[in-house]
C-alpha cells in the first residue's frame, strides 16, 4: 500500500504530514512544479506501476515500475489462465493497428 506523506508547491521542506495517519489512496495529484513524498510498505510481492494518468505524459515516459520483493516473486505460481490471456492478447494486438503508446 502506498501512503502519501507530504505534497505541496516548490521544494519539499522535509516535514512529514500526519505520520501517524497518512493519506491512503492509490491516486495522488502532483501540483505543477510541486512535489509529492510517498512511502511504500514492501509487503506485497509484484511489479507495481507508478505513473501519470495523462495519456501523452505516459507515452512520453512518465512511468516507472516498482519491483517489490523480487525473490518472493520467483516463488509465486503463475496460473495457466494468465498464459492463455497473454496468448490471446498477443493475437488480438497483432491483428490491429500498431500501438504507438501505452494504450492508457
Describe the structure.
The protein is α+β, with helices and mostly antiparallel strands and 104 residues long. The chain has a single domain, classed as Immunoglobulin-like (Sandwich). The chain is built from three helices and five strands; from the N terminus they run E-E-E-E-H-E-H-H. The strands form two sheets. The chain has a three-stranded antiparallel β-sheet with strand order 2-1-3, with no helix packed on it. A two-stranded antiparallel ribbon has the order 4-5. The radius of gyration is 18 Å and the shape is flat. The model has no long low-confidence stretch (mean pLDDT 80).
Helix and strand topology:
Elements: E1 2-9, E2 23-24, E3 34-40, E4 46-51, H1 55-59, E5 63-68, H2 70-73, H3 80-94
Antiparallel strand pairs: 1-2, 1-3, 4-5
Brief overview:
By secondary structure, the chain is of the alpha+beta class. The protein has helices at residues 55-59, 70-73, 80-94; strands spanning 2-9, 23-24, 34-40, 46-51, 63-68.
CATH topology: Immunoglobulin-like
User: What's the CATH first level?
Assistant: Mainly Beta
Considering the protein shown, what is the CATH homologous superfamily?
Answer: Cupredoxins -  blue copper proteins
Poorly predicted runs = none
Helix percentage:
10-25%
Shape: flat
Q: How many separate domains?
A: 1
Strand content: 25-35%
Count of alpha and pi helical runs: 3
Strand order of the largest sheet: 2-1-3
The tally of beta strands, per DSSP, is 5
Terminal-residue CA separation: 22 Å
Structural class: alpha+beta
